[in-house]
């Protein structure tokens, strides 16, 4: 026990000396270009591919990595015939490298907004269904009260809109709530999930579909992350249909169901205003996805963004 204690003291003293030397030199100041090159090499597993992506020569990128490793004091990449990969120490710091790059990108975007006099532009990410049925009315009414405010809308999948908020590419995401997300959440409206069935499907005259009837059925799983909301409803009931993953739009899913190629689940908002030759029945037990707004912590939002969120909360029930 005494030897272990002495060893721990020696390690602590060594760490303190290294830290003191770094601080005496003003700490570590890392070139973001080198961090960007490290991220590309680690993600692509190749200096050649990373150099091509970033517009460097391979020898130039290799020199940058050697310089980075000298600056931080330990190797971050293993080079061998299979390519490059992170060392254990590299794996330890890599999440922080990614955070640093994301912060730099967010800062650059904000500087661009200020210099282009677009600081009053609200950047929104959204599902296609919300962008179609909610946002036009919300934006029109908000602009009546706030003339000159620009609003940019980008559509994306569940994973994309949440990631764009984290990266600072957008101010908010209109989306369905994901329990695993750590972003701030403003609830807006429940959006019931409906079973999408061919016209000839035997419902037994019921006004809803027992989720257990999906067991063993050919099930067309919507893409763009919709499966996250659907699987919660299926897992809750312990139901396992024969899932056929798709990479098509909701419109194509409906057409495939119409032609008897399977059944599916979509939300009421997705089906709003449509008149397809399919049955759309509520699930039993009922299942909903909670729609709302995901953001960074509210204290970090610009005043105009906070006003748009408050306006949406007060208005959405009228849509």
Secondary-structure map:
Elements: H1 2-24, H2 32-44, H3 47-54, H4 58-72, E1 77-80, E2 83-86, H5 88-115, E3 122-126, H6 128-133, H7 135-145, E4 151-155, H8 158-167, E5 172-176, E6 184-198, E7 209-210, E8 218-221, H9 226-236, E9 242-245, H10 250-258, E10 264-267, H11 268-271, E11 278-284, E12 288-295, H12 303-315
Parallel strand pairs: 3-4, 3-5, 7-11, 8-9
Antiparallel strand pairs: 1-2, 5-12, 6-10, 6-11, 6-12
Helix pairs in contact: 2-3, 2-4, 2-5, 3-4
Describe the 3D structure.
This protein has 319 residues and is of the alpha/beta class. It folds into three domains: 31-114, Arc Repressor Mutant, subunit A; 116-187 and 291-318, Periplasmic binding protein-like II (D-Maltodextrin-Binding Protein, domain 2), CATH 3.40.190; 191-287, 3-Layer(aba) Sandwich (D-Maltodextrin-Binding Protein, domain 2), CATH 3.40.190.10. It has twelve helices and twelve strands. Strands 3, 4, 5, 6, 7, 10, 11 and 12 form an eight-stranded mixed sheet that branches. Strands 1-2 form a two-stranded antiparallel sheet. Strands 8-9 form a two-stranded parallel sheet. The chain is globular.
Features:
single chain, 319 residues, alpha/beta, Arc Repressor Mutant, subunit A, D-Maltodextrin-Binding Protein, domain 2, eight-stranded mixed sheet, two-stranded antiparallel sheet, 12 strands, 47% helix, globular, disordered N terminus
């Amino acid at each position: 026990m005494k030897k272990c204690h002495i060893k721990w003291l020696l390690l602590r003293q060594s760490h303190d000396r290294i830290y003191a030397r770094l601080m005496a030199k003003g700490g570590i100041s890392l070139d973001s270009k080198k961090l960007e090159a490290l991220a590309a090499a680690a993600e692509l597993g190749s200096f050649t591919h990373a150099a091509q992506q970033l517009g460097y020569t391979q020898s130039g990128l290799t020199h940058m990595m050697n310089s980075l490793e000298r600056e931080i004091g330990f190797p971050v990449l293993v080079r061998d015939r299979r390519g490059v990969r992170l060392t254990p120490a590299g794996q330890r710091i890599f999440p922080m490298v990614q955070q640093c790059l994301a912060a730099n990108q967010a800062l650059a975007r904000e500087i661009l907004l200020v210099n282009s006099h677009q600081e009053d532009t609200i950047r929104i990410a959204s599902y296609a269904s919300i962008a179609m049925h909610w946002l036009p009315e919300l934006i029109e009414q908000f602009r009546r009260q706030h003339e000159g405010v620009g609003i940019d809308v980008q559509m994306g999948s569940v994973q994309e809109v949440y990631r764009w908020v984290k990266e600072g590419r957008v101010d908010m995401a209109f989306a369905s709530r994901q329990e695993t997300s750590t972003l701030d959440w403003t609830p807006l409206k429940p959006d019931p999930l409906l079973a999408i069935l061919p016209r000839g499907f035997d419902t037994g005259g019921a006004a809803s579909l027992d989720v257990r009837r999906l067991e063993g059925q050919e099930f067309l799983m919507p893409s763009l992350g919709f499966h996250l909301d659907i699987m919660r409803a299926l897992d809750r009931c312990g139901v396992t249909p024969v899932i056929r993953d798709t990479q098509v739009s909701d419109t194509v899913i409906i057409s495939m169901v119409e032609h008897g190629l399977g059944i599916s689940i979509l939300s009421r908002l997705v089906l709003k205003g449509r008149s397809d030759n399919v049955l759309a029945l509520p699930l039993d037990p009922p299942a909903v996805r909670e729609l709302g707004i995901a953001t960074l912590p509210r204290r970090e939002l610009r005043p105009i963004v906070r006003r748009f969120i408050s306006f949406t909360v007060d208005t959405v029930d009228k849509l």
